[in-house]
Amino acid sequence: GQSAKLQQSYSDFLPDYFSLTEKPPEEFCLSPDASTSSSSCLSSQSHISVDLMQKRGLVKAVNTAVDLIVAHFGTSRDPDVKAKLGNSWVSPNVGHLILKYLCPALRDLLQDGLKAYVLDLIIGQRRCQPWSVVEASTQLGPSTRVLHSLFSKASQFSELTNHNMRLNAFIFGLL
């Protein structure tokens, strides 16, 4: 309430941090804001039940994956050896840890925040995928040039035949 008044009072001086181009796409189901009673995610539900154990499990899976990867790098103190431990060509174990633990954990975490479906003008209901988070987050802009380039490369490889494979490749590229 008070921040909205402040933003209205100083709208000439403060930049609009939430312009239309910066708002999340429709398929993203944002957590409800405590100050608002209606949200696009809440429109069909009068009460949201959050399974905290399930949410903790999502975070724990990411933490476990990170711990395993950090432990992999902790097998040596030599910087040259550590660099080799991070190269999946030289040390396939790091690739295994990323593909088996980190990628699924991040995919599940991203999927948890998405609506199940979004309406598409051409095909009707379209199932939301975590890859759509990557797609929306990497639109070409001054601060996203490198991410957009990585997204484009992951999108162009014909060997990456589904969204999960593209997401895995994108995560590998980020690492």
UniProtKB/TrEMBL annotation:
Q: Which InterPro entries match?
A: Run_dom, Run_dom_sf, RUSC1_2
Q: Which domain of life is it from?
A: Eukaryota
**What start and end residues bound the annotated signal peptide?**
none
Q: Which PROSITE patterns match?
A: RUN
Record domain RUN: where? 93-175
Q: Which Gene3D superfamilies does the annotation name?
A: 1.20.58.900
Please give the name of this protein.
Iporin
Per the UniProt record, the source organism is: Ameca splendens
* Encoding gene (name): RUSC2
